[in-house]
Specification:
mainly beta, 4-stranded antiparallel beta sheet, 7-stranded mixed beta sheet
Length: 115
């Protein structure tokens, strides 16, 4: 049974930080782990991704502020978010792609940046 368990969302003031976690289980041969986000009324967009070799990619809007990392032994990905802005407010979804190019999504965690 595939499970993606996300945690770490919440309310934070502008300029603050949050750390999201995504623990995957039941997926054979994980390749890429990443995070996407969807703001109200907007399309879902890719935020950051990391492959099983540690190569990373980021959306331009978060470069220099967000850092994705991964614990391969525990199939867990992390998204460290610093210098948060109100425009970062969204539901953040963990996405896992396996070696057969199947995609799995988490249930989403709300991040709200507001004073």
């Amino acid at each position: 049974q595939v499970q993606l368990v996300e945690s770490g969302g919440g309310l934070v003031q502008p300029g603050g930080s949050l750390r999201l976690s995504c623990a995957a289980s039941g997926i054979f041969s994980i390749n890429v782990m990443g995070w996407s986000r969807q703001a109200l009324g907007m399309q879902r967009e890719l935020v950051a991704a990391i492959n099983n070799s540690g190569a990373t990619g980021y959306a331009d809007s978060v470069k220099g502020r967000f850092t994705i990392s991964r614990d391969n032994a525990n199939n867990t990905a992390y998204l460290e978010m610093n210098s948060l802005k109100p425009e970062d407010t969204a539901v953040y979804y963990c996405r896992v792609r396996d070696s057969a190019l199947n995609d799995y999504w988490g249930q989403g965690t709300q991040v709200t940046v507001s004073s």
